[in-house]
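lol ok so funny story. i was supposed to be doing the assay writeup but got distracted and ended up predicting the structure for this chain instead. priorities right. anyway since i did it might as well share w the group, maybe its usefull for someone
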Amino acid sequence: MVKEVQVNANDVTFDRTLMDNVLHLKALLRGEEIGRGVFGVRDGALMAQDIFVEIQYRKHGVARRIYAEAEQHFGMQAVPSNLLTSDSAAYWKANNFSLPKGAMIRPYSYWQMSKEEQDEYEQTPGNHKDDLDDHYWSEQQRAYDEHIRDKK
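and the output, tada:
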């Protein structure tokens, strides 16, 4: 069972790294990493490439603060991507955003697995932790490209 914690999202601070116009954020609470996000702009839209909040810190506004930090950096509002985890889809719906038409929702990424699930996944021959996310992002790219092509 996960221990419930009390968090004031305003106490969260950030480490920021910008590489090739991709913003990497680490959300810190009293120096401890409790979440992270990777954001970029594609065709004028700010999207999270990855976002994660440690389970005991969820439902305290931490994800909202991560998005707000990225939005402030880029000067634009983030929008949902075409391929989401179930947690991301719930976040966007809770914040009154419609998901893109044809959005694909998957249960979770490697980083959202428990330590036991991660260990089991990695011990299976042929599996590597990046495989899930590499497949996820290649599928997102394909879906995004189809979406742009269909708009033309």
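The first helix runs from residue 62 to 74. The two ends are 49 Å apart (CA to CA).
back to the writeup now i swear
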